[in-house]
Hints:
Strand content: 15-25%
Distance between the termini: 79 Å
Number of helices: 15
Structural class: alpha+beta
Amino acid sequence: MTRRTILILIASAMLCACTATTDKSEVLGAVDFTKVKITDSFWRQRLDVNEKVTIPHAIKKCYDEGRVDNFIFAGGLKEGKFRGHFGFDDSDVYKVLEGMAYSYSVSGDEAVRQQMDTLINYIAAAQQPDGYLYTPYTLKCRDYMNLWCTYDKKRYDNLSNSHEFYNMGHMYEAAVAHYIATGQRNFLDIAIKSADHIYSLFGPGKTEAMPGHEEIEIGLLRLYRVTSDFRYLELAKTFMDRRGHGIMGFNPYFQDQKPVVEQFEAMGHAVRANYLYTAMTDYAALSGDKDYETAVDSLWENVVNKKLYLTGGLGSNPAGEAYGENFVLPNNGYAETCASIAGVYWNQKMFLLHGEAKYIDVLERILYNGLIAGISLDGTKFFYPNMLSTENAGDGFNRGQAGRSEWFDCSCCPTNDVRFISSFPGYVYAVKGKSIYVNLYVEGKAEIKLGGKKVSISQKTEYPWSGDIEITAGTSGDYALMLRIPCWAQNRPVPGTLYTYADGREAGWSVAVNGQSVDCTLEDGYCRVDRKWKKGDKVSVSLDINPRTVVADSRVADLTGLVAVERGPIVYCAEGIDNEGISVFSEPLDACSEFTTGTTEIEGVKVGTINADGRINFVPYYAWNHRGRGDMTVWLRRCTE
């Protein structure tokens, strides 16, 4: 019996073990983003800007900064020297390609497909005959007096810092996205050749190595889903299981402090950690591995109850771009944009593993605050860190100052924005059996495959500025709508106890079908409405979306005596430009303030505003730093009697 046959039998046994009593239709899965058409003013604007402005901007920067030339030179298509950072610059091209593939899936723009083919041809040329692909090594970048470069030895000689595996993870994700979008195998075959090469060197029983920066694990699992090649599932687990055995000195920066199934506190570089937790969760869902499930459950509880910024930001320590100690959440902390994006990926996987609304509650908080704060409304400037308080901030980036920039020497965040925003529609709905999960309230239409039939539904709403949502059945059918009731509508800012409302008010919610009130007991955070639907039936969801004041757990010393303001899923901040004559850092705010709401335009985009007691003006945190240099804070000094 060949090794490949044995692996296939093992894979079948593992997967059957967790699906023996459940057919495929009973597995919880996201509704593909190509089946969801977004029409609302909030997200449609961002999708359009991403497609028409940010993607072209990122492509141009990849050409201008030498990212693309490195592939051209490595492939021998032209003569030239390596330019850029030795570690991760290749990944920027892959992430932009992933975003382009998502965009093409919706637009069908032939010019985009041709642009992708050009870039893929350069990548194919740069790949070595055995599958190895890493332009800094191929171009021997140390020889060119670039201080970032160290490649004068052999391949894979510096896995803690080289990002060779990290880059391949992003390449696999992009290749899968391209294959799904176009049906072409040109990019997928490059990815398969690379993965086979890495498996042959580092698979089970081979060289005991692992990535310094996690990401290849996610890519391998995506590759496994489209190829059904068990080796990729096996290699992802192998890399994860090698942590905690000293390969990288038991260093928590690399999540090497303990075996992954014994890691119950989030530690180390936050982006690396969140990518690892995403892969662990996905593997748990694929395999039914209870040890992995227990670990990610504990890690999630630790983050949500002890390490989550109010804005959904993750990773408070600028030293190492890392998770800090429990309850250490300084306002000038780090909260890298990439960590927010990875946090959305992780919470989506947690939802798909468990089917509970609390994971979407956290996902939504990250999404509407810490994530989209990282990209300007016009789509051309970016934050790397996302502080919650800063003095006299303006444009011009460095790692210790808040300020937007058109590009960075390390541009992982802008290219991550590109790929994430393109995929946003895929987070709105999920399906399991005869149940449709409405996870995000976004105006638009969706076609959903349910029990072999197509069901269409539509949403009409001005969320997040309004808590009124109308959902209309576009086809008749017998199914359940699972309507997420956000935790903020149940008087909890987030799952857990890290933050609480301080105003003494009570929020509420209601659901009606065709004008008749529905008495609904929540199931895992969802109001289940199960009936035989007729075309044109309407569901009305009403969520109290009034401004609320928030305080932190008393153990968060940095937030003692401070109060913040939010409305629905949006966290607000006070900017100096809106508050002339007062200091946003010293002006006190009563937790029981009276609020008025309004709107303004920033960069031509409608933005909801709040005024507290007629004297302090607030704008959404995501919209700050668009109107020049100035002070900003999310947390204000709390009034005392």
